[in-house]
Amino acid sequence: MSIIIFAFSIFCGWLIFDVVKHRKLNIKMILSSFVISVIAGVAWWLLDLIL
């Protein structure tokens, strides 16, 4: 469950950062935030397995 919360918070944070930086919201920003959050979630899961 913590992996999902972590990935969702990365998604929201990355999306907010992009919106503040570019002053607009488009599908490319949403998709890039989603990809980054999936990568972060997988990395968090792998760290959880290793440690």
Describe the structure concisely.
The chain is mainly α.
3D architecture notes:
The model has no long low-confidence stretch (mean pLDDT 94). The chain starts with a helix and ends with a helix. 88% of the residues lie in helices and 0% in strands. It has one domain (2-50). With 51 residues, it is mainly α. Keywords: Membrane, Transmembrane, Transmembrane helix. The chain crosses the membrane at residues 6-22, 29-47.
Q: What low-confidence regions span 5 or more consecutive residues with pLDDT below 50?
A: none
The biggest beta sheet is recorded as: none
**Structural class, from helix and strand content?**
mainly alpha
Order of helices and strands: HH
Number of helices: 2
- Judging from the principal axes of the Cα atoms, what is the shape? elongated
Helicity, as a percent range: over 70%
Provide the residue-averaged pLDDT: 94
List the helices and strands and how they pair.
Layout: H1 2-22, H2 27-50
Question: What descriptive keywords fit this protein?
Answer:
51 residues, mainly alpha, 2 helices, 88% helix, transmembrane helix, transmembrane
